[in-house]
């Protein structure tokens, strides 16, 4: 089976979390900002599909299911970062400060992107003002999400939502090829939408859109009644039920090795990164003119450059190299601090 084991997958989750902890804050911000509108497209589709009065009255479960079909879109969200950063922290590869910086920047980046998309694209764009039915559907949806349920119910729905979201991300990392990754993400995400669980980033679009349309409450009520319980639920669902649980099951007291050496071309692209290229276009053209001989390389190196996809590491993706066993992201936070001090001392000498 061409997939990582659960143990290897949670190890990769830890390494990805470590990599995210060392991302430049400006890039993390804009990456998170752009994720808000991408998820907003799915939320807008859900609200538009839900504007079906007959189905809402006679077959609400069916319209939920239909709405959930097109929802699984998004990118770098706070919700998955809960799992990544919690696992890396438990693995002692990052500090508490690293975790908090990532969570704060990604959360407010998602919020800014969602509000931008809601106000500029769907708000001023008048997407839900074409007919009274669209407007009423937006108001009805946010009332059902923020006003009707109790605080503790929204908290529990947030737990369930991020449990499924982080499971989707976990399964996508476990898969190697793109088609399997898409399928792995789709089913858990479809499930949480069809069951109307609360997603804190999705609500950053849905509830402000309902307030824009005329919902009977304001921003303060939304923050207290929806954003805070959903946020706390996300931390429990993704951090505890996925990050902590899988870390305990597969990483405590274990040394895990993850190999990215491909045995086929699809396996070589397991992380979706650009292929490794060791020859320039000029070198390649020159080698063709000389019958495949590359000047300046000994025979063994020339053989390595002409390896087939099935024969070894020349086809390893760049992300595969970043997350391999010898990458800096496998070291603990203390080991990296010690290494940095040693390198600083050597430079002074």
Automatic annotation (TrEMBL):
Composition skew (Polar residues), residue ranges: 304-317
Topology versus the membrane: Multi-pass membrane protein
Gene Ontology MF, one: high-affinity secondary active nitrite transmembrane transporter activity
Protein name per the record: Formate/nitrite transporter
Gene source species: Friedmanniomyces endolithicus
GO cellular component: plasma membrane
GO biological process terms held by the UniProt record: nitrite transport
TM stretches of this protein: 28-48, 68-91, 103-127, 154-171, 178-197, 231-250
Positions of the UniProt region annotated as Disordered: 282-349
């Amino acid at each position: 089976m061409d997939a990582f084991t659960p143990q290897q997958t949670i190890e990769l989750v830890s390494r990805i979390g470590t990599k995210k902890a060392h991302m430049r804050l400006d890039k993390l911000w804009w990456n998170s900002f752009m994720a808000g509108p991408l998820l907003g497209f799915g939320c807008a589709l859900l609200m538009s599909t839900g504007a079906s009065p007959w189905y809402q009255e006679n077959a609400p479960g069916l319209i939920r299911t239909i709405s959930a079909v097109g929802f699984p879109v998004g990118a770098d969200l706070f919700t998955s970062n809960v799992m990544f950063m919690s696992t890396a922290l438990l693995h002692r590869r990052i500090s508490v400060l690293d975790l908090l910086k990532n969570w704060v920047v990604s959360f407010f980046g998602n919020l800014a992107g969602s509000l931008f998309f809601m106000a500029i694209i769907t708000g001023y764009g008048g997407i839900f003002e074409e007919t009274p039915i669209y407007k009423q559907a937006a108001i009805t949806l946010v009332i059902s999400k923020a006003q009707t349920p109790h605080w503790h119910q929204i908290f529990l729905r947030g737990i369930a939502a991020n449990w499924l979201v982080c499971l989707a991300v976990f399964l996508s990392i476990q898969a190697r090829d793109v088609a399997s990754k898409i399928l792995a993400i789709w089913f858990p995400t479809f499930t949480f939408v069809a069951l109307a669980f609360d997603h804190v980033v999705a609500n950053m679009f849905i509830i402000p859109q309902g307030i824009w349309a005329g919902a009977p409450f304001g921003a303060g009520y939304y923050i207290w009644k929806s954003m805070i319980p959903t946020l706390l639920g996300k931390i429990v669902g993704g951090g505890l039920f996925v990050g902590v649980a899988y870390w305990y099951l597969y990483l405590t007291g274990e040394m895990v090795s993850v190999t990215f050496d491909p045995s086929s071309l699809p396996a070589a692209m397991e992380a979706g990164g650009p292929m490794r290229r060791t020859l320039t276009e000029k070198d390649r053209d020159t080698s063709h003119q000389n019958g495949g001989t590359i000047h300046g390389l000994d025979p063994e190196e020339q053989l390595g450059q002409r390896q087939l996809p099935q024969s070894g590491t020349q086809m390893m993706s760049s992300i595969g190299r970043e997350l391999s066993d010898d990458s800096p992201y496998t070291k603990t936070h203390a080991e990296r601090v010690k290494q940095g001090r040693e390198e600083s001392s050597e430079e002074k000498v």
